[in-house]
Amino acid sequence: MNAPDAPALEPEPEQAARPQRRLHPMSWMFVLLHQLKEFALPIIALLLFGQGETWQFWGAAAGGVLALVSVVQYFSYRYGVIGSELVIREGILQRKVRHIPLGRIRNVSLHRNVLHRLFGVAEVRLESAAGTTAEAKMRVLSLADAADLEALVRAGQHDAGDSQDAPQPQWLLRLPTTELVRLGLISNRGMVVVGAGLAVLWQLVPDGFGDLVGGLVEAASGRAQSLHLGWLSWAVGVMALVVLAVALLRLLSIALAIVQFHGFTLARAGERLSLEAGLLTRVRAHTPLRKIQHWTVVESLLHRALQRQSLKVETAVLRAANDDARNLNHLAPVATPEQVRGLIATLLPEAAYPAFDWRPLHPRAWRRMLWPSLVLTLLVGAALSWRYGAWGLAVLALLPLLVWRARRLAAACGYCVNDTVIAWRSGWLDRRVSFAEVAKLQGVQLRSSVFDRHHGMATLIVDTAGADPMGGHRIHIPYLPQAQARALMDELGRRIAASALAW
Question: For residue 422, with 0-12 CB atoms within 10 Å meaning exposed, 13-18 middle and 19 or more buried, which class applies?
């Protein structure tokens, strides 16, 4: 008789749960470049301003250590999907293993700069609704591995209760270059870049920066005196310089808009949104539609001049300050009002935007809005009159204009609460309309300062998941009658509690 077959050996539990996938073979180079970028300024300062060859040696030694760390990280990094979790293992001497439930991952984004596209790889970031950093950053994966990881995450989210993507995406918005030119004319990206550059220059060479500015002023002044220019010529020259500076800043803003949003496409597949944009660094991000918490329609004076609007959203994902926060924030960086209304009608039809039943603020809200500018004007008038006599009081001629502005601003503000959303609009020249679904609110609070209580007013503050308290157009409704504000807070509190019980 033949002997019975020996039973197959079962893998050890630790080996069965060990992730087996690696990063791309060139991953070490991208990690090294990222680390060098973090230490670029100190290394450059050491090499340029150090004495002798000692600093150069230490700079080269630091680069060698970074390269070694990058290689070690590549050989030790493993990832894989085991059950309903993404398991990441890294480290040789000190090992670290993380288990990330797939159902907790809310956004999968792929970042590809020029070097990534040259090697056919991508940096993958996985973000959730908890924490202030990405759950995982994988530098870098091949495009095939990145696509496989996206599919595994979606499958895990489907098992956790999220709906699966539709097989064919529905294209919602595409932006040609002409629209990006309009976006550059509207935005102030050029000013931000120039300001950041001047700040860096000031930090690196503060004395040289001051000497440079002083030298330019003295050269311009000397040139004007040699030409015997009068005050009218001075004024024309200054105006010409201002126009030239504005034109150059707008051209820079147009270039930055094209670099950031080139090839912008927004698509919907089932209950999931996907966005792709970028010229040098290509970004592709996905998130469930139901994770959008906050909507804002922006319409500045320049928007209206070009008959355009912008649509921004906030999702239930918190990002660190150094993360690329543009992933899914700009659903429509620039679009016609009809396109914006169509997007909202498609993605959130129950909001009934823009047919909101707006309610006004307190009848005396314009007085509260007037006080800051009124006090500032009186102080400036007093200072000028002390210095120049009665002529300094001419600034008080602005008071009627300030009153008119405060009335217009108060009339432009309003709020709305219907069966689905709470909305808040503000601004007169630059208009903002923000709204959020009541069922997704995280909390509501009432604030009343000494001045509010004196005037019988209160401020209603609404919180949503993933909201950035330092930026954006928050749903903070000021100058409400106290009784009306308390009734509104009680109503929203009951509806929030009912929504929590329903979940």
Answer: buried
